[in-house]
Amino acid sequence: MTRYESVLEMIGNTPVVNASALSPNPNVAIWVKLEGRNPAGSVKDRVAISLVEAAEREGRLIPGQAGQTLIEPSSGNTGIALAMVCRLRGYHLKVVLPSNVSIERRQLLLVWGAEIVDSPGSEGSNGAVRMAQTLAAENPSWVFLYQYANPANPLAHYTHTGPEILADVPEITHFVAGLGTSGTLMGVGKYLKEHKPGTQIWAIEPPSGEMVDGLRSLEDGYIPPVFTDNDGANLLDRKVVVRPKESIEWTRRMSEIGLFVGISSGAIMAGAVKCASLIPEGESATIVTIACDDGWKYLSTGAWTDDIDEVVERAKSIIYF
Amino acid sequence: MAVTLRIPTVLRPATGGRATVDAVGATIGEVLGSLSQEYPALTPQLFNDDGSLHRFLNVYVNDDDVRYLGGLAAPVVDGDEVTLLPAVAGGASA
């Protein structure tokens, strides 16, 4: 169906495209699910509508009632998706945003009328989470959906993303996705393990840079409750970290097959390629991976056009996951 | 087996400021054990009280998280690069 009553109905059912031309192993197919096709531009549209509808079912939010405020920490995409949903529902949204995200992310929040609360860039997402927790505690009338701990986050992927993947690529053997809140990996991973046992679930850890350098103590570390609540350590089969340069290289290489995707999608593709190269000779495999968003929000980073070493250096201080 | 360990900023006060340290062992457990003998101040940052890997510490052998390769029993070979990184929320900068 291509006719919709509301933009919200356009969330999900994203296309999957064959990216095997980039596979280093002729026996391993790689398919990419294009989440940038969601109306607010990222995989987080699924999470945003799921979080808001769950809160409405629980009576924490009442559609159309004036004076309702939400607060949420986000390095960008969740905030942008929530801003769009909140605009349609009539809620006021405050997004706690690390100050070092790309300018396009800030602007998109403003497009849909969100209020930006700056958190220190040097503290990255950890700092945004901490500040949102503090503000939510100080303002009990604000609704704090807290994507890092809300079961409606992985549920969106368990009920939609996972079934879409299995329907489109029933021969899947490996699912490879990025580890942020862990909602995608937990939701899709659980669905695939239940409905296609034996599917391997691989997590790609974003590269770490200045933000990790800014930690004062190991005890400032953070593991999303979504990850522990879903027994992530047992659900995942493998976790690999990718380097900043690989992320940019693979973001660029995806344009060879016509895909203009965000830098985190390049990082995840770099991980999928690692996965493909580790499949033993003589075995075949089908990897499905996620492109979280498109490249538009990252044009200001020069990721496609500038000298790669300069881009990598610059990207160390910009949050893109 | 001789491996090179990359130490994150947050742990460097315990290694005299060193960013890379050489250590020996056949498994990650042995490598971290020899590291903690050389730098005792690191011990509580490497291990929980029960001797398991500290919950906020991720350890990678050549970019692969050891928790999914057998944990402290994960094998290492000569020349491996072992990276220690604190666990942080998604949204880490590049």
Q: Could you walk me through the main structural features you see in this protein, from its secondary elements to its overall organization?
A:
The complex is a heterodimer of chains A (321) and B (94). With 321 residues, chain A is α/β, with parallel strands linked by helices. Chain A folds into two domains: 7-38 and 151-315, 3-Layer(aba) Sandwich (Rossmann fold); 44-144, Rossmann fold (3-Layer(aba) Sandwich), CATH 3.40.50.1100. Chain A has helices spanning 44-57, 77-89, 103-111, 124-138, 152-168, 183-195, 210-213, 225-229, 232-235, 244-253, 263-277, 308-315; strands at residues 16-18, 28-34, 69-73, 92-98, 115-119, 143-144, 174-178, 200-205, 238-241, 285-291. In chain A, helix 2 runs parallel beside helix 3 and helix 5 (152-168) crosses helix 6. The two termini of chain A are 31 Å apart. In chain A, 55% of the residues are buried. Chain B is an alpha+beta fold and 94 residues long. Chain B has a single domain (2-86), classed as Roll (Ubiquitin-like (UB roll)), CATH 3.10.20.30. A five-stranded mixed β-sheet of chain B has the order 2-1-5-3-4, covered by helices on one side.
Q: How much helix is in the residues of chain B?
A: 10-25%
Major beta-sheet overview of chain A: 6 strands, mixed
- What is the number of beta strands of chain A? 10
User: Class by helix and strand content of chain A?
Assistant: alpha/beta
Oligomer: heterodimer
In round numbers, the mean pLDDT of chain A is 93
Please, how many domains of chain A?
Answer: 2
